[in-house]
Design goal:
Distance between the termini: 53 Å
Enzyme class: oxidoreductase
Number of helices: 14
CATH topology of the largest domain: Dihydrodipicolinate Reductase, domain 2
Strand content: 25-35%
Pfam family, one: Homoserine_dh
Radius of gyration: 24 Å
Number of strands: 17
Keywords: Amino-acid biosynthesis, Metal-binding, Methionine biosynthesis, NAD, NADP, Oxidoreductase, Sodium, Threonine biosynthesis
Family: Belongs to the homoserine dehydrogenase family.
Bound molecules: NADPH dihydro-nicotinamide-adenine-dinucleotide phosphate, the ligand N[C@@H](CC=O)C(=O)O
Binding site for L-homoserine: 190
Helix content: 25-40%
CATH class of the largest domain: Alpha Beta
Structural class: alpha/beta
Length: 428
């Protein structure tokens, strides 16, 4: 069979992994697809930069159109990241009939519908398994594995960098900034790690997963997002003392046709399996009406795990080429999107309050919860080890989000409360 020629946009952490797997597993790939896969050209920013693998320098280019306009290139693998130029190169490649494999969740979360429509018009494949949860094949699983079921909840740790940071803070008492630097050196973090730590990367991934899982057009703005930059070692220590771990969780639910998607640091009971997903590992729980609970676990970032998903997509494209069925993914019709209101969202909450250390304080605080119909599971009052005031730790029963907002608003004018130190959602 004639070789399938690939143009690689990017030779950083993931691009390097793609070259290693395509070259190292060539025979296995060929035996599955029937065609040799050749990386023909590679786009980089700087051709003279030192590389961690040996590359024939004649393959490197700094001009994207050397790849996108090359009639010999069959598939463009995009692992350069970014949105603006990258979108333009991908659309141009599709308009020239090239198939696309990408790891770019930013692009797919923001412009997925436009890119997929362009692919459809040109009978091209666009596959993006590596864009969510690195080495875990969760996208194919949602599209194919769960096609017969109705998914009610998707819950996961979908950002390796923040999970790495929270794990090191919890297990080693390491400082936030020190561990972030390590995650960057290991190639887990995004070029701008703000999108990891502020939850945006996870929100983009949850946009993709909930769109596929609930078969409705979820937009990034629909995801309520909070990152981990305000999480303190004190919060983590409290969580541990009470039998919880703090994790950045993406949670998407669908009930009676209404959906909600959130990303926020969440206290997870330490007996729940997701509490022991540590380091760069990701885990995604999918709950289906018929199947019940399922869990997918694996490395969420890094060179070879991410490249595994990219090359699996490449194999799928090449198999489709052999069968002549590229671009024939049946998208079906999406359901109308209906977002839950705060009144329809129900969670347990943890609150840490710094309060005056005097008689009657606890009663005034519990009265506010009662006034807004938020029932309490446990309340603990103790001296604050660092201040003359006291601490009150509250865990609520399931309460609707609107009621919790009213409680927090009332606390702002309650004179016995010095500070609402932390508020976290509680899961499990
Ligand atoms: N790292 C990971 O674990 C994961 C990453 N991803 C996604 O994969 C993509 C790539 O990530 P990663 O490999 O970490 O990124 P890197 O920053 O390590 O690599 C980016 C590569 O793209 C090249 N590049 C960047 N901008 C341009 C440009 N404007 N023109 C030409 N070349 C350019 C760089 O060239 P040069 O080498 O010359 O600087 C570099 O080779 C991103 O979309 C990311 O979100 C997805 C899952 C996991
Ligand atoms: N920065 C991301 C990389 C993979 O998508 C992460 O940390 O998960």
């Amino acid at each position: 069979m004639k070789p399938v020629k690939v143009g690689l946009l990017g030779l950083g952490t993931v691009g390097t992994g793609v070259v290693r797997i395509v070259e190292g597993h060539q025979n296995d790939l060929q035996s599955q697809t029937g065609s040799p896969i050749v990386i023909e050209k590679i786009l980089v920013q700087n051709k003279s930069k030192a590389r961690s693998i040996q590359i024939d320098s004649s393959k490197l280019t700094e001009d994207p159109y050397d790849i996108v306009h090359d009639p010999e290139i069959d598939v463009v693998v995009e692992v350069m990241g970014g949105i603006g130029n990258t979108k333009e190169y991908i659309l141009e490649a599709l308009s020239r009939g090239k198939h696309v494999v990408t790891a770019n969740k930013d692009l797919m979360a923001l412009h997925g519908p436009e890119i997929l429509a362009k692919a459809g018009e040109n009978r091209c494949d666009v596959l993006y398994e590596a864009s969510v949860a690195g080495g875990i094949p969760i996208i194919r699983t949602l599209i194919e594995g769960f096609s017969s079921d109705r998914i009610t909840k998707i819950m996961g740790i979908v950002n390796g960098t923040t999970n790495y940071i929270l794990t090191k803070m919890s297990q080693e008492g390491a400082s936030y900034s020190e561990v972030l630097k390590e995650a960057q050196q290991l190639g887990y973090a995004e070029a701008d790690p703000t999108s990891d730590v502020e939850g945006l990367d996870a929100a983009r991934k949850m946009t993709i997963l909930s769109t596929l899982g609930f078969r409705t057009d979820v937009a990034l703005e629909d995801v309520s997002t909070k990152g981990i930059s305000a999480v303190s070692s004190e919060d983590i220590a409290y969580a541990k003392r009470l039998g919880y771990e703090l994790k950045l969780l993406g949670i998407a639910t669908s009930q009676d046709g209404f959906i909600s998607v959130t990303v926020e640091p969440t206290m997870v009971k330490n007996t729940h399996p997701i509490a022991s997903v540590n380091g760069v590992f990701n885990a995604v729980y999918v709950y289906g009406e018929a199947v019940g609970e399922t869990m997918f676990y694996g490395p969420g970032a890094g060179e070879l795990p991410t490249a595994t998903s990219i090359v699996a997509d490449l194999v799928a494209v090449v198999k489709n080429l052999r069968l002549g069925i590229n671009g024939q993914h049946a998208v079906g019709t999406y359901k109308e999107k209906k977002l839950k209101t705060d009144e329809q969202i129900s969670n347990k909450y943890f609150l840490l309050l710094h309060v005056d250390d005097r008689a009657g304080v606890l009663a005034r605080i519990t009265q506010v919860f009662a006034e807004f119909d938020v029932s309490l599971e446990s309340v603990l009052q103790q001296p604050n080890p660092n201040n003359p005031d006291a601490e009150i730790i509250v865990i609520t029963h399931d309460a609707n989000k609107a009621a919790m907002k009213r409680v927090l608003h009332a606390f702002e004018s309650l004179d016995v409360i010095r500070k609402v130190k932390s508020v976290y959602r509680v899961e499990g």
